[in-house]
């Protein structure tokens, strides 16, 4: 697909930047993201567009939209300084893509987010309207390996699962970070759509990612297919590990 065709899908106003575009005031949510791994596949923009709600369009790089499987650990979750979740820390695995909103902003759109506790699932579904799912999960790290397991319990009863083991390599120096690395990781907002069809956006702030080389050693995943993407046996073409960051999230606002 050439540049003239991709422009029909993506006309972002905001640039890709490794640093947040603007600092937040008082966040409504703070947390820490640890042991995060990115696995990404290129997908035809038409395939992503068919699964997006009205008002969002695929963000495109190299003629492709991109679908990610992103497992990691959430820790130190604090809701507006008033409530710390008693679970402390827990794994999460999300299936995501990258979109342009009606305001010209670039952000993440989540197809699913699996966590091992029912309470955070309900909180996220009722506050941010995000498609959290309750799953049996495990996460571990030993030597240069990180391992992740998720088996879905609710709201789908199909038992979709994801098992990932990656080997983590050297830290990327600044000159080794590619434009695709930035496109996939430098995302400073999330988009969703309300039940009434309004597009909402929440800004996210954290230090620039420190990325590492990574390789897939085991991948047995149903979550991407459950989100609507038929990738067959294709291996991810982009795999990175990331170091921990402290995260602040603003309240969602209507943008379209």
Work out the helicity level.
10-25%
State the fourth-level CATH superfamily: Acetoacetate decarboxylase-like
Provide the CATH topology: Acetoacetate decarboxylase-like
- The poorly predicted ranges are 1-7
Strand residues, percent: over 45%
| CATH architect. name | Beta Barrel
Task: Specify the biggest β-sheet.
Answer: 16 strands, mixed
CATH class: Mainly Beta
* DSSP summary, beta strand count: 16
Total number of distinct structural domains: 1
Q: Quickly count the helices.
A: 5
Termini, distance in Å?
28 Å
Short note summarizing the structure:
The protein contains five helices and 16 strands. By secondary structure, it is mainly beta.
What is the topology?
Layout: H1 3-6, E1 29-34, E2 36-43, H2 45-49, E3 57-58, E4 65-79, E5 83-84, E6 89-100, E7 106-115, H3 118-127, E8 132-142, E9 145-154, E10 161-171, H4 179-185, E11 189-193, E12 199-205, E13 211-221, H5 223-226, E14 238-242, E15 245-249, E16 253-254
Parallel strand pairs: 7-8, 7-11
Antiparallel strand pairs: 1-4, 1-15, 2-4, 2-14, 3-6, 4-5, 4-6, 6-7, 8-9, 9-10, 10-13, 11-12, 12-15, 12-16, 13-14
